[in-house]
Design a protein that fits this description.
The structure holds 2 protein chains of 2 kinds. By secondary structure, chain A is mostly helical. Chain A folds into 2 domains: about 80 residues; about 100 residues, no CATH class. In chain A, about 60% of the residues lie in helices and about 5% in strands. Chain A contains 8 helices and 2 strands; from the N terminus they run βααααααααβ. A two-stranded antiparallel sheet of chain A has the order 1-2. The longest helix of chain A has 28 residues. The two termini of chain A are about 20 Å apart. The N terminus of chain A is likely disordered. By secondary structure, chain B is α+β, with helices and mostly antiparallel strands. Chain B folds into 2 domains: about 60 residues, no CATH class; about 160 residues, Oxidoreductase, molybdopterin-binding domain (Sulfite Oxidase, Chain A, domain 2). Chain B is built from 6 helices and 9 strands; from the N terminus they run H-H-H-E-H-E-E-H-E-E-H-E-E-E-E. In chain B, the strands form 2 sheets. In chain B, strands 2, 3, 6, 7 and 8 form a 5-stranded antiparallel β-sheet that branches. In chain B, strands 1-9-4-5 form a 4-stranded mixed β-sheet. In chain B, a hairpin with a 2-residue loop joins strand 6 and strand 7. The longest helix of chain B is centred in the N-terminal third of the chain and has 22 residues. The two termini of chain B are about 20 Å apart. The chains are: A mainly alpha, B alpha+beta. Chains A and B meet through helix 1, helix 2 and helix 7 of A and helix 2 and helix 3 of B.
């Protein structure tokens, strides 16, 4: 899984004579929501670490330089401000993902067998890259991080409103358990971000594509 | 909220806004760096960020007031679930807990009420009492289940002839702590002027002689050692609220 971001197939605006070598990979909505989300996630995670440090669940704290907000009150202020950015932006992306067919076209079908096959191919350097197409491991990671985001928001709402949203608290096993779930949802998201950024470093040409939306086909690469 | 009320609210918060600007400043260089990197904003003036954060705090107050459902009750627990030992928490150490003479104590009532006669423990005990075993959630994230009983605040407010159309109920405490809540939360059936903890008079460290117990809000909105209760249309803020904790802080 070294092609970090290929997404849609050729779009009408770039469909031209076959000699054209640039294709649209990321539509504008995806690019905008991606970068807003990146900013919101950084704010949420770093302010969340500030809040965690006020009453650690586990036997460690995050060093102050990794946290946002200067003190607990500042951390909460950041967390509950960036929350709106994260949720509104997330809803725009998810609505777009369903309505445009982005989810059904790019993330599915997804099978455990294909994931295992692609992992094996990647480890033996035989994974085939096609710009505009995700391999099964990428699909799995993108679907997983979306679900983790939903879990983080639901567990976060539970911590914010345990009385007003009693079904959430019940579903997640009560307030103290919701804290632990919220922490692990964060951990999963941070794990994704680490892999995601590492792959961009390994394949740097994916970064400008997430800004301009376009990727240049290399000799021998086909658009599908 | 009308424009006039909004202006009044902003005006009421102005001194606090100024007071806390320092505390919400982002001192972490990485935080500033990350933010500048991602937004390209000029953050040389940290006050811009602080103003946005304060505006969002006030926005979240309004959202929480809308989300607050007066008929939803906080979950109650059986006595077996009571946390033992129960943790002391205040803005000072346990050896600084005020030593109050219950016999001499009088609680003042002021603001938009018809009867401003001070209350003593005997009169408060003569009012209807209610108990609860609920989860006390600290803004820091920890929580514990405790048992309190006392006078439902809505009964007390009715007895003193409070104007329940007023917006806020404020509390001033013997230890110089202060806080305030919205009227809708003050009238919630589980909001009590607690006199007992685990069926005994409140121990000094948990707020003797009287404290607010409000399971629909975070722990710091449960002031101890109450000296005065008042009803007002001007947001009285609070010890922590004025430093940047969200004022509504509803659970």
């Amino acid at each position: 899984m070294t092609e970090a971001e290929p997404q849609a197939g050729p779009q009408p605006e770039t469909a031209g004579p076959p000699r054209r070598r640039w294709i649209l990979i990321h539509p504008l909505v995806v690019r905008i929501t991606h970068w807003i989300n990146a900013f919101a996630i950084v704010c949420m995670v770093m302010s969340g670490w500030q809040i965690y440090d006020a009453s650690p669940i586990f036997n460690f704290v995050f060093p102050p330089w990794m946290t946002l907000g200067d003190w607990l009150g500042g951390g909460i202020a950041w967390h509950l401000a960036a929350l709106w950015l994260l949720v509104v932006n997330g809803l725009v992306y998810i609505s777009y993902g369903f309505a445009s067919g982005h989810f059904s076209r790019d993330f599915f079908p997804l099978s455990a067998r294909q994931v295992l096959l692609d992992i094996r191919s990647a480890l033996t350097f035989n994974l085939k890259h096609t710009p505009g197409v995700y391999n099964a491991v990428q699909k799995l990671l993108y679907v997983a991080v979306l679900l983790l985001g939903v879990l983080a928001v639901i567990s976060g709402l539970t911590l914010w409103k345990p009385v007003q949203l009693p079904w959430f608290a019940w579903l997640l096993g009560g307030y103290p358990t919701a804290r632990v779930i919220h922490f692990f949802a964060m951990s999963g998201i941070v794990g994704f971000v680490i892999i995601h950024v590492a792959l961009v470093i390994i394949v740097p040409r994916t970064l400008p594509t997430m800004i301009t939306g376009r990727a240049r086909l290399r000799p021998g690469e086909e658009i599908v | 909220m009308t424009r006039k009320e909004r202006l009044a609210l902003t005006e009421a918060f102005r001194p606090q806004l100024r007071k806390v600007e320092r505390r919400l400043m982002l001192k972490s260089s990485l935080s500033l760096g990350a933010l500048t990197l991602l937004t390209g904003c000029d953050l040389a003036d940290g006050d811009v960020t602080d103003r946005v954060l304060w505006a969002m705090l006030r926005f979240n107050d309004r959202v929480q007031a809308l989300l607050f459902n007066p008929v939803v009750l906080a979950k109650t627990f059986p006595p077996s679930r009571i946390t033992k030992p129960f943790r002391f928490n205040a803005f000072y150490d346990e050896d600084s807990v005020p030593d109050v003479d219950g016999g001499a104590w009088k609680m003042a009532v002021s603001g938009l009420v018809t009867d401003k006669t001070p209350w003593d423990l005997k009169r408060l005990r003569a009012l209807p009492q209610e108990g609860q075993i609920t989860r006390h959630i600290c803004v820091e994230g920890w929580s514990q289940i405790g048992q309190w009983s006392g006078v439902p605040l809505h009964i007390f407010l009715e007895r003193v002839g409070a104007d329940t159309r007023a917006r806020y109920v404020g509390f001033k405490c013997i230890d110089k702590y202060y806080s305030s809540i919205d009227m809708a939360s003050a009238l919630h059936p589980q909001t009590i002027l607690a006199l007992d903890f685990e069926q005994q008079p409140l121990p000094a460290e948990f707020g003797f002689p009287a404290r607010l117990r409000i399971p629909t809000k975070l722990g710091f909105k449960n002031p101890k050692h109450i000296a005065e209760i008042y009803v007002t249309n001007t947001n009285p803020g609070g010890y922590w609220e004025d430093q940047g904790y969200n004022w509504f802080s509803g659970s």
